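Below is how a single chain appears once it has passed through the pipeline. First comes the sequence as given, then the structure the pipeline wrote out for it. We keep one example in the README because the format questions we get most often are answered faster by looking than by reading.
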Amino acid sequence: MCPQRLVLEHVTSRWGVLVLMALEERSYRFSELRREIGGVSEKMLAQTLQTLERDGVVHRDAKPVIPPRVDYSLTGLGREAAAQVRALADWTDRRLPEVKAARQAYDEVRAPEGP
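Resulting structure:
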């Protein structure tokens, strides 16, 4: 598997997209980010953040206080990736009626014939 494909997979994964879009707004603590995204397990969010951190897209700032405080934010690379993901999300919002119409037309042509 080529390295570009792996990075693309990480950035455009279900949770990767949502993490990027959330962190585009501001930095978050882990529990805040989990609530903001919604529907993601702790394990999956931790894996996604770790993967994006490894790729240089997310910055993890662990403060040596009690209780521990960890904040997540986007790096410069991450802000650039988030802008690209945001552009795709905006395109999806704008073109959704056309996609729905195409789906309906496809389903009508492909629908099984009745008895």
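The helical segments are 3-12, 14-25, 30-37, 42-54, 76-110.

See the next section for the split statistics.
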